[in-house]
Amino acid sequence: MFRLCTLSHLRVRGSLAFQVHSTRSNTQNVMALIKDLREKTNAGILDCKAALEHSKGDINEAIEWLRKKGVSRASKLSSRAANEGGIVVNETDIQVTMLEINSETDFVSRNAKFHVFASQICELAHSCSVEKMDSATNSPVLAISELTTKTLPDPINPASIVPISDALKSLSANFGENLLLSRGVKLSVESKEKGVVASYVHNAIGPNVGTIGCAIALSCDSLNNEQRTKLKSIASSIALHIAGCPPRFLSIQNCSAEDIEKEKQVYIENAKQSGKPDNVIAKMVDGKMGKFYEEVVLNEQFSVTEEKPTKISQILKREEKNLGITNLKITSFARFRCGENN
């Protein structure tokens, strides 16, 4: 608690490091400092008082004191489950990045500070290295350990430039919840003249932040500006489809031999129970596998955005002809649903 005295300057007495003049105006100034500090840090009143006492009324030092205290607090939160959060996307002309950032509750993930922080990280992700390729979707998976070393303004004390790993701890302590940077991808095309990227967020909770995120890259031999604008619209439509009808693989060639064999064995065993000849069983299994591909392979799926039943591969062929371009194909895609891997 602040002790009122007749001194017009600051001095230390025992454990009290912050004292103010007892006039009404100075009391109001003290309360204004506390209010300002709370608005900037979201810290509790007692923590703000302690920080101002420690810093002798210096607001910037008080923020830094709270930030350091928050790192310690964040380490205690790190073991707690974080299954909520948001999927954030960021696009340039030739590249789209997508990240999943988890929190413990949607109360935090709907906060504007969370959205700003997520967007800043996603923008930095454009320069992050790729750790590996996802063989099912052809999507380049980001090296999260490298991404967390990149720097940005501390979300609580913007005057300080800190690594993303420290910024996560700072914001975690501020919210009182565990925050995790879980995963990310970076899809790209060779140039504006040879393809487009697009993204879509479903159930938006902030600018370019939602509970489901989809990203896609389409390539072709060459594009002019008019063709590019139209192809961008087609890519966006397919991204919307991916959100509503989640595929596991880009093409049949991307299906693993293990997955194909596993499905075949299930269908063979079921077909044998019919007592039909082997040649009939083989045709039955082929038909079942065709249905399997239509469910899990993007190119084989029927688009949810078309009025008539039309496969994604058929849309590509149709638009290739309509736009007057060649070798149009989906080179990669990704779909994140918040919390699905936790």
Topology of helices and strands:
Elements: E1 4-5, E2 20-21, H1 24-41, H2 45-55, H3 59-77, E3 84-91, E4 95-103, H4 106-109, H5 112-124, E5 130-133, E6 140-142, H6 144-147, E7 151-153, E8 161-163, H7 164-175, E9 180-188, E10 195-206, E11 209-219, H8 225-244, H9 257-272, H10 278-296, H11 312-323, E12 329-337
Parallel strand pairs: 1-2
Antiparallel strand pairs: 3-4, 3-11, 4-9, 5-6, 7-8, 10-11, 11-12
List the uncertain runs: 1-23
Structural class label: alpha+beta
Proportion of residues in β-strands: 15-25%
Q: Write down the overall geometry.
A: elongated
Classify the helix fraction into a percent range. 40-55%
Mean pLDDT: 86
Task: Quote the distance from N terminus to C terminus.
Answer: 43 Å
The radius of gyration over CA amounts to 27 Å
Largest sheet: 6 strands, antiparallel
Counting DSSP E segments of at least 2 residues, the number of strands comes to 12
Secondary-structure element string: EEHHHEEHHEEHEEHEEEHHHHE
Given the structure, what is the number of helices? 11
Notes on the protein architecture:
The chain has 342 residues and is an alpha+beta fold. Helix content is 43%, strand content 22%. The chain has eleven helices and twelve strands. Strands 3, 4, 9, 10, 11 and 12 form a six-stranded antiparallel sheet that branches. The chain has a two-stranded parallel ribbon with strand order 1-2. The radius of gyration is 27 Å and the shape is elongated. Mean pLDDT is 86; it is low at 1-23.
Features:
342 residues; alpha+beta; six-stranded antiparallel sheet; 12 strands; 22% strand
